[in-house]
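Section 3.1: Structural characterization of target chains.
Under the original work plan, the team committed to producing a structural model for every single-chain target entering the pipeline before any wet-lab resources were allocated. The record below documents one such target. The sequence was received from the expression subgroup and is listed exactly as submitted; it comprises 295 residues.
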Amino acid sequence: MRHGWKLFSFFFILILTQCGRPQNFDDGTVKDSTNNLAPSSHIVQSHEEFKKQAIATLDRVAVAFNKSGKDDAPDLLIRSEYSACKSLSVIAAALDKTSSFQNEIKEETNRLIIEDSTRVGKAGKITNGMLGLYGYYSILYRMRFIDNEEMMQNLSAMNTKVVQKIKPDIAAIEAVSIMAQTIYLFTTAIMKNIDTEGLYVDAFTQIEKQYKEGDETAQTDEDRFLNGVYRTFEVSQLWALFLAPESRNEISDLNKDLYKRNANVTDIGMQMAVAMEYLYRINDLIARKTLEVAR
C-alpha cells in the first residue's frame, strides 16, 4: 500500500481507547417532550415490529452480498456501496426517535432507486452509490447537529464543495473522491460529539494524522478516495466499539480481514472496491448494534 493511505491498525485503536460503554447512546436528534413518558404498549409493539423488519432487511442484504461470488472491481464497488446504503438507512431510521427525518430518509432511498434505474454504465452507478452514501451520512450529521448553527454552516460549506464536483464535464472519480473525503469528515464530527468523555481522543489524533498525511501525499483521485474510505472505516470502528464494547473481537477480525484482502491487491480499482466492502461490513455491524440500544 502507498504510505499516504495505509490503514491505521485497530490494535492501536484498542490500546488508545478505554474499555466499556460510558453512557447511554444519545442520537442527538430533535428532542420531543413525550420521550420522558413511559411508552405505551402500541409504541413498544411498533418498535419491535420496526426492529424485526430492519433486521430482516440487514439479513437479506448480507445473504445476497455474501452469495454474489467474485466480482470485478466496478461490480464489487457498486454492490458494496448499495449494501452500505441499506445499512445506513437502517441506522438513520433507528436513531430518528421523533420521526423528524423520516421523510428525508425515504426521499434518499427513493432517489437512490430511481437514479439506479436510469443510470447507464458502471461509472454512473458508482457515482449514484456514493451519492446515496453521502446522502445518508448527511442525514445522520443533521440529526446530530440540527440545533448547532456553526456545525450546520459547516455542512452547507461541505455540500457546496461536493456539488461543484458533480457536473457533466467533471470526471466521475473526482466527485466520488470528494464525497468519500467528506463522508470521513461527517463521521468524525458525529463520533467526536458522541464521545463526550474523551475516551477516543488519542485514536482521533492518530486517524486525523493519517488522513492529513494521505491528503498531502495523494497523487490521484483514487488515492484520495481510499484515504477517505479508510479513515471512515477506522472512525466507524470507534462507533461500533462505543455501541458494543463486547464486539471488540468482531471489529478486530474485520480489520485483520481487510489487511489480508489488500495484501496482494495491486490494482487500484480493486483496492477501492475492497475498501468499500469493509465500510459496508462495519456499517452492518453498527446498524445491528444500533437496533439493540436505540429507541
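DSSP finds eleven helices and no strands in the chain.
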